[in-house]
Design goal:
By secondary structure, the chain is α/β, with parallel strands linked by helices. The protein has a single domain, classed as 3-Layer(aba) Sandwich (Rossmann fold). 25% of the residues lie in helices and 17% in strands. The chain contains 11 helices and 13 strands.
């Protein structure tokens, strides 16, 4: 089940969320193409049906080579939109696995397949950014892609022998997903690479390879929900070194980001992207006191030998302010939507526009990200 913390459940709660399926492609994992997924196709069939209306229904696609931490195969969900030129790729969240405590609660330890995807379509398949009926949803008419999270490595790993033998190959999986999506949607013009929590971190981590795969003629934008790339004062070098080794990040970082390989260098990714892609836009959504992210970054703060788990609220708020006002401030194409809250993840709140900060609704801010409007900027509570 897809785990997404919500406003009503508190910090330790996770909502089981899964998004429908259909039999697209062969059961042995061979690739499907967009022609096999028609608008109006019902979620249990590849025959045209009402499928939830003219924008189509969720379909499950087995993706050859994609594997979960328990070595089982996995895939992705796709729902064709009314506007074929626009693609939303959403990466699921669900924790991170780098020690016994964090691994004990990470999502989908037993894998994620078509049955898991099918289980929750009626519950949350149309929530937040997936809501077709919300006229204020910036992505209502887009084609939607859902990438499940079952490797525990924020989609960054390339280590088939990860923590205690787990198959932590989320980055490798993203290569398979991306190759298939590029093939399926050759006429796409705009891609928003997004995700919540671990999926937000994963979207940011994979931005360079996704943008490169779609090519210069496709505008690829980043919308990172609750995966703030804090500076090394807060996402400390010792914790970075732990995940770098556990997940084999030196094999997956962008080849041309030398600073990323230095001690504490994972924090250099965001400035690297903003510099390398000056005509692309990078949006980050974060709470000032996010109780879930504080649990994870606390393992390295103030040191890995003497961690404070969770990180204190005031310390985390300082890290968010530093990210917004110092690390990203020099770049006109990177902005932060900051919410004065301890809550976690926002893109699956329904409706998306119910979230606001500093007099700006989240939907208006997302529209600015997509359109590149001149008044798109940081939002401060």
């Amino acid at each position: 089940m897809i785990r997404v913390s919500t406003k009503s459940r508190g910090l330790a709660a996770a909502l089981a969320l899964t998004l429908g399926c259909g039999d697209v492609g062969d059961g042995d994992g061979e690739s499907a193409d967009a022609a096999a997924i028609e608008p109006g196709t019902d979620a249990g069939s590849t025959e045209p049906g009402d499928g939830g209306g003219p924008s189509g229904a969720w379909q499950w696609i087995d993706v050859a080579g994609a594997e979960c931490m328990n070595d089982t195969p996995t895939g992705m969900g796709v729902r064709i939109g009314a506007d074929p030129s626009k693609l939303l790729i959403f990466l699921e969240g669900g924790g991170a696995c780098f020690n016994r405590f964090t691994c004990s609660g990470v999502a989908h330890q037993n894998g994620f397949g078509a049955d898991d995807f099918a289980a929750g379509i009626a519950e949350r398949g149309d929530a937040g950014v997936f809501n077709r009926a919300d006229p204020d949803n910036p992505f209502a008419t887009w084609t939607h892609v859902f990438i499940p999270y079952c490797t525990g490595d924020i989609f960054a790993g390339a280590n088939p022998d990860g923590f205690e033998g787990r198959n932590q190959v989320g980055y490798t999986n993203m290569g398979h997903y991306t190759d298939q999506l590029v093939s399926m949607f050759p006429d796409v013009e705009v891609v928003v690479l997004s995700g919540s929590s671990a999926g937000g971190f994963g979207a940011a981590y994979n931005y360079d390879r996704v943008a490169s795969a779609f090519g210069d003629d496709v505008e690829v934008l980043l919308l990172d929900d609750s995966g703030p790339p804090l500076g090394p004062d807060y996402l400390t070098p010792c914790l970075q070194d732990i995940v770098r080794t556990t997940w084999n990040l030196d094999a997956t970082l962008p080849a041309d980001c030398d600073a990323c390989r230095e001690s504490g260098g994972l924090s250099a990714l965001a400035p690297f992207y903003a510099t390398k892609y000056p005509d692309r836009r990078f949006g980050i959504i974060t709470s000032t006191r996010d109780g879930v992210i504080r649990l994870f970054v606390g393992w390295g703060y103030p040191s890995c030998d003497n961690p404070k788990v969770p990180m204190d609220e005031a310390v985390f708020a300082q890290g968010v302010a530093q990210l917004r006002d110092e690390i990203l401030a020099p770049y006109d194409n990177a902005r932060v939507f900051t919410i004065d809250s301890g809550l976690h993840v926002w893109l699956l709140e329904d409706p998306v526009g119910s979230t606001s900060s500093g007099g700006v609704t989240l939907t208006d801010w997302i529209r600015g990200l997509v359109a590149g409007s001149g008044d798109w900027g940081d939002v401060v509570p």
